[in-house]
């Protein structure tokens, strides 16, 4: 699968400093991919709080893709990450099942005793990111988001 990244730059060229990964849709590959991604120089200068927030967002989205988009068959997930000043831009694409109704779950804070599937994870994603967009282009699910980040001196 090859989907062009749209990270706020030219649609046909990955900007310098963009990390691109293709991950298998299984928990082990996701865990290893997250470790590799956050070990990159591109993300090493982030403060611990910014790294933690970014890891939560990316891990939650990837886990949702594995559990839901690829619930009936395996596949791959492409992820692009780039940093510009105080923002981390993330784009993910997969050819799994589309979001029900074609929309992202609302995600809302719930009592921890009553957490339904699709509840708290999307609350975290929405709380820690902005410019969150999703569309299904007929074959691919494409999710883009932006995370505000701080840097270590």
Write up what this structure looks like.
With 153 residues, the protein is an alpha+beta fold. It has one domain (19-148): Histidine kinase-like ATPase, C-terminal domain (Heat Shock Protein 90). Helices cover 31% and strands 25% of the residues. The chain is built from 4 helices and 5 strands; from the N terminus they run E-H-H-H-E-E-H-E-E. It has helices spanning 27-38, 41-44, 48-69, 120-128; strands at residues 19-24, 76-84, 87-94, 130-136, 141-148. Strands 1-2-3-5-4 form a 5-stranded antiparallel β-sheet, with helices on one face. Helix 1 (27-38) runs antiparallel to helix 3 (48-69). The longest helix is centred in the middle third of the chain and has 22 residues, at 48-69. It is globular. It starts with 18 loop residues before the first strand and ends in a 5-residue tail after the last strand. The relative contact order is 0.21.
Short key terms for the protein model shown above:
5 strands; 25% strand; Heat Shock Protein 90; alpha+beta; 5-stranded antiparallel β-sheet; 153 residues; 4 helices; single chain
**Name of the CATH superfamily:** Histidine kinase-like ATPase, C-terminal domain
Helix amount: 25-40%
| Helix/strand order, N-terminal first | EHHHEEHEE
Number of helices: 4
Number of domains: 1
Q: Classify the beta-strand content into a percent band.
A: 15-25%
CATH architecture: 2-Layer Sandwich
Main β-sheet: number of strands, strand sense, barrel status? Answer: 5 strands, antiparallel
Number of strands: 5
Could you give the distance between the termini?
Answer: 38 Å
In which order are the strands of the major sheet placed?
Answer: 1-2-3-5-4
Task: Using the CA coordinates, give the radius of gyration.
Answer: 15 Å
CATH topology heading: Heat Shock Protein 90
């Amino acid at each position: 699968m090859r989907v062009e990244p749209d990270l706020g730059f030219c649609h046909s060229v990955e900007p310098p400093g963009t990390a691109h990964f293709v991950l298998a849709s299984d928990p082990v590959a996701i865990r290893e991919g997250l470790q590799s991604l956050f070990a990159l120089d591109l993300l090493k200068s982030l403060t611990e709080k910014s790294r933690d927030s970014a890891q939560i967002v990316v891990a939650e989205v990837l886990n949702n893709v594995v559990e839901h988009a690829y619930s009936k068959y395996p596949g791959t997930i492409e992820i692009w990450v780039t940093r510009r000043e105080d923002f981390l831009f993330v784009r993910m694409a997969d050819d799994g099942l589309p979001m029900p109704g074609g929309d992202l779950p609302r995600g809302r804070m719930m009592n921890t005793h009553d957490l339904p599937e699709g509840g708290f994870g999307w609350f975290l994603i929405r709380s820690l990111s902005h410019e969150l967009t999703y569309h299904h282009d007929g074959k691919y699910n494409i999710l883009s988001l932006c995370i505000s980040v701080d840097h270590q001196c």
